[in-house]
Write a structure and sequence with these properties.
The protein is α/β, with parallel strands linked by helices. It folds into 3 domains: 15-124, Cobalt-precorrin-4 Transmethylase, domain 1; 127-232, Methyltransferase, Cobalt-precorrin-4 Transmethylase, Domain 2, CATH 3.30.950; 240-285, no CATH class. Helix content is 40%, strand content 17%. The chain is built from 11 helices and 10 strands. The protein has helices spanning 30-38, 47-56, 76-84, 105-113, 126-134, 151-158, 177-188, 211-220, 240-259, 264-275, 279-285, and strands at residues 15-18, 41-44, 63-66, 89-92, 118-121, 141-146, 167-172, 192-197, 205-210, 227-232. The strands form 2 sheets. A 5-stranded parallel sheet has the order 3-2-4-1-5. Strands 6-7-10-8-9 form a 5-stranded mixed sheet, sandwiched between helices. Helix 7 (177-188) runs antiparallel to helix 8 (211-220) and helix 9 (240-259) packs antiparallel against helix 10. The longest helix has 20 residues, at 240-259. It is elongated, with a radius of gyration of 24 Å. The termini are far apart. Its EC number is 2.1.1.198.
Length: 288
């Protein structure tokens, strides 16, 4: 059944999905401030964090409540009561746009099911900021969120996208950045990539290179802050079997050269170039 809703038709309960600054408070919009001042309830991931934003702009909502991944379901009854009373809710995340690797999907689904207007309030997004500043092709792009923490789950997470010709965009924490880059290199090959961090802040930084270069870069640098990872996955897709076969040939080459007296490092360099495999991966595979 088709559902058509006029979001701004008159008064009544509404759900505003509000983008907030990802680091620079100057990125706030006049519309966002007007909505935060007018709604009855602001639902946010961390009340301490959002209260700083509200206080900075002298905004004092009737209710400021926590809404995060651990209480999404429990908050549905509260949201229904607010809407039944004809009142409105503004949903915000700690930074950027809600629902993009942040809570909110349950609340949006509930509002739609109850025919409550869901009104997006566009604004800052680390995803889009990283994408437009990366220098990689913008269309099409695929947002992948955060990589799963377990290795086997991470590989299956990437599997449906291996042959997709697009720019991949994902988020990662500093302590898992290196491992995720290595996974991307192993699964996608040595493709152009970009790291973006501290977006909109004083120390905003873009690091561009191939995935193998970014792996080496993160070995030498201490990762700090949240990262946006971008990878250009266009062109030159090997079947996994071919990649594995080339790696096996490269390993055999290195082992033979080392057995004949050649230094391990120089054998790895030669084999990586000869067989088109990742040097760091080959080095680790042939250490013993």
């Amino acid at each position: 059944m088709v559902q058509e809703m006029k979001n701004n038709a008159g008064d009544g309960p509404k759900l505003y999905v509000c983008s907030t600054p990802v680091g620079n408070l100057s990125d706030v919009s006049y519309r966002l401030l007007d909505i935060l001042r007018s709604v009855d309830v602001v639902a946010c991931e961390d009340t301490r964090h959002t209260r700083k934003l509200l206080t900075h702009f002298d905004i004092h909502p009737d209710q400021l409540i926590s809404y995060h991944q651990h209480n999404e379901q429990a908050r549905t009854g509260f949201a229904e009561r607010i809407w039944d009373e004809g009142r409105s809710i503004a949903l915000v995340s700690d930074a950027g746009t809600p629902l993009l690797s942040d809570p909110g999907a349950v609340l949006v689904d509930l509002a739609i099911a109850r025919e409550i207007p869901v009104i997006p309030v566009p604004g800052p997004s680390a995803l889009l900021a990283g994408l437009v500043g990366s220098g990689l092709p913008l269309t099409p792009f695929v947002y992948l969120g955060f990589a799963p923490r377990q290795g086997s789950a991470a590989k299956s997470w990437l599997a449906p996208f291996l042959s997709v010709e697009a720019t991949f965009v994902m988020y990662e924490s500093p302590h898992r950045l290196h491992a995720t880059l290595r996974l991307l290199l192993e699964q996608l090959g040595d493709r152009p990539g970009v790291l973006a961090k501290e977006l909109t802040k004083q120390h905003e930084t873009f690091v561009r290179g191939t995935l193998s270069e970014l792996v080496e870069y993160t070995e030498e640098k201490d990762a700090r802050g949240e990262y946006v990872i971008l990878v250009d996955n266009r062109g030159g897709h090997d079947e996994p079997e071919n990649e594995q076969a080339r790696m096996e040939e490269a390993i055999a080459f290195v082992e033979a050269r080392v057995a004949s007296g050649e230094r391990h490092k120089s054998a790895v360099l030669e084999a990586a170039e000869k067989y088109g495999v990742n040097r760091r991966t080959l080095y680790n595979e042939t250490l013993s």
